[in-house]
Amino acid sequence: MLLLVLLLELTVVILFFAYTDKIDKYAQQDLRDGLHLYGTEGNIGLTNAWSIIQTDFRCCGVSNYTDWFAVYNSTRVPDSCCLEFSDSCGLHSPGTWWKAVRDPPGPRPDPRRPQ
Ligand SMILES: *[C@@H]1O[C@H](CO)[C@@H](O)[C@H](O)[C@H]1NC(C)=O
Ligand SMILES: *[C@@H]1O[C@H](CO)[C@@H](O)[C@H](O)[C@H]1NC(C)=O
Asked: Of 40, 43, 96, 101, which residue has the fewest beta carbons closer than 10 angstroms?
């Protein structure tokens, strides 16, 4: 069972990595709706997946950390959003959280295929 959960999470992470460039605004809205399930009962897989994604990809939320404000009704984010993880660090200021899904420093090679 644990292995299955790990495999599922790995799949989510890989899919996220593969498709993050192509996620359109409708998918983004879906993901934002999904944020509301974070940390709720029966959604451990989703909760863990967000934690892993945010930690591994150094991101916070779907577009940025403001996506979490709607979830918590306040200016806080999950601890996995923190540049330096510590308990309840998600209650600190935005300056201590990841800024964006991807924060490319300057231009990066992006071989976009013609549509
Ligand atoms: C976060 O993303 C939203 C939607 O893309 C944008 O309107 C907003 O300005 C961004 N905020 C910050 C702090 O980057
Ligand atoms: C956020 O606000 C909505 C509407 O006011 C409420 O239904 C919901 O329970 C609140 N959520 C939290 C986490 O406080």
From this structure: 40
Q: What mean pLDDT is predicted for residues 88-113?
A: 70
pTM: 0.71
The preferred substitution site among 36, 41, 72, 73 for testing ligand 2, maximizing ligand atoms within 8 Å of CB, is 73
Given a cut of 90, whether residue 4 has pLDDT beyond it is: no
Burial of 104 (0-12, 13-18, 19+ CB in 10 A): exposed
Nearest CA to ligand 2 atom 7: 73
Element (H, E) at 10: helix 2-19
Q: 11 in ligand 1 pocket by Cβ < 6 Å?
A: no
Which of 29 and 76 is assigned the larger pLDDT?
Answer: 76
Locate the domains of the chain by residue range: 33-104
CATH code of the region 33-104: 1.10.1450
The ligand whose atoms approach the alpha carbon of 73 most closely is 2
